[in-house]
Design goal:
mainly alpha, 92% helix, 0% strand
Length: 115
């Protein structure tokens, strides 16, 4: 997913640098990609939040009982939670950047409409 989103962001950045394209069609396609990545972002937010809640529950359980088994589970969840946070960070920032790209593309449509 990381390669795909970064490649797509680069593609749109390169497209914005040129003026030889059908901006209305590219903008419609861009909106579809924004919807896909925003959905992916939402799913990862839910999964990340559930992992974070599980981590907190495990830490509280360990604090009150001292169970080493649950401590191992808490560590395993933490190992999974860190990459989820990093991936969600990438998705969030990329979708925000896509919104900015969309605004730039819309400005190009407006300019081409009036020329």
């Amino acid at each position: 997913m990381k390669k795909r989103i970064l490649a797509y962001l680069k593609y749109i950045d390169d497209l914005i640098e040129t003026d030889n394209c059908n901006w209305e069609q590219e903008t419609r396609k861009h909106l579809v990609q924004i919807a896909f990545f925003a959905h992916e972002r939402q799913v990862h937010l839910i999964v990340m939040a559930l992992f974070a809640i599980a981590e907190i529950i495990c830490i509280l359980y360990v604090h009150f009982t001292g169970s080493l088994t649950i401590l191992a589970l808490a560590f395993a969840i933490l190992v999974l939670l860190v990459p989820y946070i990093m991936h969600y960070y990438l998705l969030e920032n990329s979708v925000q950047r896509m919104y900015s790209q969309y605004d730039t593309m819309m400005n190009k449509i407006d300019k081409s409409f009036y020329m």
